[in-house]
Amino acid sequence: MTEQSLTDVALPASLTGRTVLPSDARYERVRHGYVHRGAPAAVIFPENVEETAVALAYARSRGTVVSVRSGGHGISGRSTNDGGVVIDVSRLDHVDVLDRTRRRVRIGAGARWGRVAQLLAPHGLAISSGDTGDVGVGGLVTAGGMGWFARRDGLTIDHVTAVEIVLADGTFVRADAEHHPDLFWAVRGAGGNFGVVTAVELEASETGDVVFANLVFDARETAPLVEEWGAVLEAAPRELTSFLTLMPAAPGRPAMAHVAAVYAGDRPGAAQRVLTPLLGLGPLLRQEAVLAPYPALVPVGGAPHRGQGLGATRSGLLDRVSTQTARSVADALASGQVLMGQFRSVGGAVNDVSLSATAYAHRTQNFQLLSATVPERERSLDAHWARVAPEVNGVYLSFDTRRSPEALAEAFPEPALTRLRALKARYDPENVFDRNFPLR
Ligand SMILES: Cc1cc2nc3c(=O)[nH]c(=O)nc-3n(C[C@H](O)[C@H](O)[C@H](O)COP(=O)(O)OP(=O)(O)OC[C@H]3O[C@@H](n4cnc5c(N)ncnc54)[C@H](O)[C@@H]3O)c2cc1C
Q: Which among 13, 51, 196, 364 counts the fewest CB atoms within 10 Å?
């Protein structure tokens, strides 16, 4: 679909001031995502539910590809396209505390998590989202949400109490445990397949200052460091959540490991006791630990996206960080098969939730592994992943660029996949929302 043919069929009047076309000076700032580059024929910015429904009807009437975008950080989900329509909900970005006593908040799907953190902090509240303040509410809250308090608080979706969504036929629905419970279940893990989420209600957590530690190690001995990090996390109390990022050696420096760790409490003595075992992971190059308000952990950037991220990724959930997994990742980094490896701790409160409570149905694993490279080296990535695969127990699709039936089956183990497909047939029979992972 070209710009000409889009404008031939007039935009509904309510959208004319809301739409950016390729001829517009603003187009360069809105065409791409963080990872994926795009050349859409139109980017529409609805400002309310009605305009969202009109934008969707318009895009459908054109027979174009429809992408839904909140923060534009999709790795698996492609929130831009070539020649189609992008419905960008970033102007639906309100953050309201509905009931401080019960910690109930309502957030527009287009808000970014860093701003959410800033606006909730004065109320002594926070929602564990992810490690990046610019990630959007809509994309994360429809998939999972592995954040800085994952082991204390669970996933972001575990705090969602209601979703407001425009379905493929334009109907607006509020789904919660009593109303449309099937849809409520599906959106919390596979939401990108079911409509345009406009807002969510969540139960936030009481959170004041927390201890944030950043440790950088010489990782020449990568495998033992990785294995030990896993052991420390398994033994740690739930207040500790940590992400371990591994970078291969580069000219002038050895392989390095960055351990980011959050102690979700404000008592420095207790934090020190919990963090100290991490100091022994290897030769320490740099260390810092600060008592900080949660918004400082998810700063807001706001630069336009350029499609700059590592575009080929694999995700695997792990029960443990075994010797075999640690060795495979270390070898892949040393050989150049992958350019970045990242482990995240999950477990803890994530695993208190029943397997059938949400479409995200991984409630026994303790770690998440992400391996990434550039698309041109995807075959090397696959060779590495074949070695890791026997240890993998499930996939978090937000971190995986595969679109194969195998990846889908690992992401939604039965009976979740069959239930999702039945709901897809009911709520989106024409597969309008096909830009995330192919449920059908
Ligand atoms: C730098 C970076 C750091 C990250 N860190 C974390 C992390 O710490 N923890 C974690 O769990 N994940 C993390 N992610 C993954 C991230 O959560 C997902 O990629 C998520 O989809 C991004 O949300 P978004 O709204 O910014 O994405 P977008 O690109 O806007 O959307 C991605 C996809 O989500 C769906 N979607 C988006 N908005 C809506 C909506 N309103 N209604 C329905 N469907 C929608 C669509 O299918 C879309 O294609 C990170 C990603 C990046 C790039």
A: 13
**C-alpha angle 8-11-16 in degrees, rounded to nearest 5:** 125
How much distance in Å is there from the Cα of 77 to the middle of ligand 1? Answer: 7
CA of 302 to the centre of ligand 1 (A): 15
Query: What range does the domain containing 377 cover?
Result: 210-411
Verify whether ligand 1 is closer than 6 Å to residue 189 (CB atom). no
Q: How many domains does the chain have?
A: 3
pLDDT at 307: 87
- CB of 74 within 6 A of ligand 1: the answer is yes
Q: 188 and 60: one domain?
A: no
* Smallest CA separation from ligand 1 atom 39, residue: 138
CATH of the domain at 396: 3.40.462.20
**Per-residue pLDDT, 9:** 64
Assess contact for 115 and 163: CB atoms under 8 A. no
Is residue 353 a part of any domain in this protein? yes
pLDDT tens digits for 238-257? 999 999 999 999 999 999 99
DSSP element (H, E) containing 285? strand 284-293
Length of the chain: 440
